[in-house]
Description:
The chain is mostly helical.
Amino acid sequence: MAVPPLYSPIPTAIHPCHAEINAQTADWAETFEIGSVDLRRRLVRHEIGVFAARILPHGREEVVRVVADFVMWLFGVDDGYCEEGPLGQRPGDLAGTMHRLLRVAQNPEAPLLLDDPLANGLRDLRARVDLYGTDSQAARWVANLREYALSVVWEASHRRANTVPALSDYTLMRLYDGATTVIFPLLEMGHGYELPLSERDDKAVRAAEEMASFVITWDNDILSDHKERSAD
Length: 232
């Protein structure tokens, strides 16, 4: 399938430190041993740091690095656990693993998964979220991570049963399994502000946030079609 250029009303931009950010994220993945050696090599070729530099082209460099490392961590879960690992077809076991990781994100001092690379990477990410964000932003980051975890377990149940979700279910799943909502608090941190609760909970703001998630995830589905077909 040939994918035509996707229209965007927002001019393209990239953070001026994108090369340094990209190199740092590759080093971070090696330091915490995110995924298998083969997976890490593939992820490094994707230039995830450059991707993050396009998400926050005008943001604080330290937070762009957090975004890049978090996206790298997500690929460790999505590809390492869910798509290429045995947990991807064992939703019950995956739920337990994700629940433990969530506890690490919520309480990094918890004596859980002390030798687990993804857990230790998550501890590092949480420490930096605390450093650059407020308590409420950190809490929202963890809460949104929980939504992501629940959605990947749902995906695993379909993978195990070899079923395709109905369009309405898939649409709901895509609100969360792309982890876009987990990125949103980091965007605030990157620009040095915090949206007041009264504004964030406004229906119009929530609708705009959901529409942004849909644009990101549905476009991703189009662009990754070749990867999914080759996996089949």
